[in-house]
From TrEMBL:
Transmembrane keyword on record: no
Listed Acidic residues bias regions: 330-342
Regions of compositional bias (Gly residues) in chain numbering: 1-19
Molecular-function GO terms, alphabetical: DNA binding; double-stranded RNA binding
Pfam families in the cross-refs: DZF_N
Name the record gives this protein: Interleukin enhancer-binding factor 2-like
Domain DZF span(s) in chain numbering: 25-338
SMART domains: DZF
Region (Disordered): 1-24, 325-348
């Protein structure tokens, strides 16, 4: 008797499907992380001292200062956010005769809350959680009430007036030099009660709840003052070049979502390939001392785009990589041809 082929053995399909051939088993896709020199440093000891990255660090700090909003821009946004937060908090605690909706909570989210707001983009985000269902009429009523109350504050302070405009996500409050997007959502138990014709869209409402989770996670985890800015910059560029956003890579999972959504899955295959190829080109430019051109602190001679055109750095030619992904045309429908072949076979 051959081992494993008797009753209940693995070689014979038995009761319960224990003997299924290997090719019938479902395939499990294994996502692998890209090569990371920081994690693999013990396996690749240095043969010479680390290069001096002082120039790169100074360039990064200079570029950071250019990207940060000016003090006047920050003051404009802060002033408008403070007024709006005051009005909304009052509607949560003491709504008075306001009956368009009931508010549960008001939370600041987005780049303003995280401290990552960029110069020229003086827009803050506030999420308003309604106890009641977010109908379009309720959003419009809240917008009118906020417009009325904020303008009362501005007149009392002697500052300029504000305007409110409704949109598919809520409404936007605009003042001189700043704007605040008020993103409307509702309690989680109300999500299944939403109707597309009456309320804001389900995806919009869910994304606003996700924004609160993201801001909370960022506030609790995104503080690493010990990390050097030049090390962080080079590591991020190296990971992108190593395929962080390519198919089959673990990528960057969203820690706030149960489904472990990954950032690069929102990109199509051509965009994923382009991100990796561009990062590889820029990484070679940085390695040859061209970090100022990559950071946008200095324009290349002749207005060349270093990510798409051939450049020379101290005698070293850096050529942009050709696309590795080629979109294949969809196969033609061959149903009619198969039918003809079948008929010929029957006739024969």
């Amino acid at each position: 008797m051959v081992r494993g082929v008797g009753r209940g053995g693995r070689g014979m399909p038995g009761r319960g499907g224990m003997g299924r051939p290997p090719f019938n088993r479902p395939r499990v896709m294994l996502l692998r992380p890209p090569f990371d020199l920081i994690l693999a440093e013990p396996a690749f000891p240095r043969c010479k001292p680390a290069p001096d990255d002082t120039a790169l660090t100074q360039a990064l700090l200079k570029r950071h200062a250019e990207l940060c909003p000016t003090p006047s821009e920050q003051a404009s946004v802060l002033s408008l956010v403070t007024k709006l937060q005051t009005v909304l908090d009052n509607l949560v605690v003491a709504p008075g005769d306001f009956a368009a909706c009931q508010l549960e909570e008001v939370r600041q989210v987005g780049s303003y809350k995280k401290g990552t707001m960029m110069a020229g983009k003086n827009v803050a985000d506030i999420v308003v959680i309604m106890k009641t269902l977010p109908t379009k009429e309720a959003v419009e009523g809240l917008s009118n009430k906020v417009n009325e109350e904020v303008n009362k504050l501005t007149r009392a302070m002697g500052t300029g007036s504000v305007t409110c405009a409704c949109n598919e996500r809520g409404f936007t409050v605009t003042a001189a030099g700043a704007a605040v997007r008020v993103l409307v959502t509702t309690l989680h138990q109300n999500l299944r009660k939403l109707e597309p014709e009456v309320h804001l869209e389900y995806k919009v409402i869910s994304s606003h709840l996700a924004a609160i989770r993201h801001s909370r996670w960022f506030e609790e985890n995104a503080h690493h003052s010990s990390v050097k800015v030049n090390t962080l910059y080079q590591r991020a560029l190296s990971l992108l070049a190593g395929g962080l956003f390519l198919p089959g890579c673990a990528g960057l999972p969203d820690p706030c979502e149960a489904a472990h959504a990954r950032a690069h899955t929102a990109l199509d295959l051509a965009a994923q390939d382009h991100a990796a190829a561009t990062a590889q080109t820029l990484l070679r430019v940085v390695a040859r001392g061209g970090h100022r051109y990559v950071l946008g602190l200095q324009a290349f001679e002749g207005g060349k785009d270093i990510s798409t055109e051939i450049t020379v750095w101290d005698g070293v030619v850096v050529s942009p990589l050709a696309p590795a992904y080629q979109e294949t045309p969809e196969p033609m429908d061959t149903d009619d041809k198969d039918d003809d072949l079948t008929q010929d076979g029957v006739a024969a």
